[in-house]
Amino acid sequence: MPKAPQQFTPSPRAQPTDLIKTSYGAADALISQINKTLSPEESAFITATLVNINRLDESSPLGRLISEHLSARFTQTGYRIVETKLRTQIYLKRDTGELALSREIREIAKKHSVRAIISGTYTESLNRVFVSLKIIEIEKNVVMAAFDYVLEKDALVKSLLNPT
User: Fold this and answer.
1) Phi (first) and psi of residue 65, to 5 degrees
2) Total Cβ atoms within 10 A of residue 13
3) 3-state per-residue secondary structure call for 12-59
4) Is residue 13 situated within a structural domain?
5) Residue 134 resides in a domain
6) Is residue 126 part of a domain?
């Protein structure tokens, strides 16, 4: 007697990455590290756009969106974020092998009493995107907090990395 054909059961569709939840969780991790030394009342930050680690002068919609989420979460928890979108591009640059803050960032920091910058990088692998975040004290160029996480490179994340 011939075997009955096997029934095809589609696998449950994976949920797309919840970028807001993931970014807020990363922001909360950074906040828990700096809360030991800085209170929201005495701190102001600039949020830099996350950049591609292989091309530090380039970003993507993903890098810009994560930066927006970080800025929102810090604001929600009482930290003051100085908005820089109305100015020329703010970014970190490589200088003789070290990460150096641009002169413009230092000028904005002084004018607005900004203590630190929230910055980060991302890098792509075949199926994942690795994100590294840092809070850097502007005056001393010292990392005050750091957090790393991984995003699955699903259709949503891919579309934000390589928009058509």
Assistant:
1) -65, -45
2) 6
3) CCCCCCCHHHHHHHHHHHHHHHHCCCCCHHHCEEEECCCEECCECCCC
4) no
5) yes
6) yes
pLDDT at 128: 95
Question: Is 14 part of a structural domain of the chain?
Answer: no
Q: pLDDT digit string (tens) for 10-40?
A: 445 567 789 999 999 999 999 999 988 877 7
Rounded-to-integer distance, Cα 131 and Cα 64, Å: 13
Written as one letter, the residue type at 2 is P
Q: What is the span of the domain harbouring residue 130?
A: 19-161
Euclidean distance between CA atoms 104 and 84, whole angstroms: 11
Question: How confident is the model over 53-81, as pLDDT tens digits?
Answer: 998 888 899 999 999 999 999 999 999 99
Nearest to 116 by CA among 139, 94, 98: 139
Residue 52 backbone dihedrals phi, psi, to 5 degrees: -70, 125
Domain count, the chain: 1
Among residues 135, 118, 115, the alpha carbon closest in space to that of 63 is found at 118
pLDDT of residue 140: 87
CATH code (residue 152): 3.40.50.10610
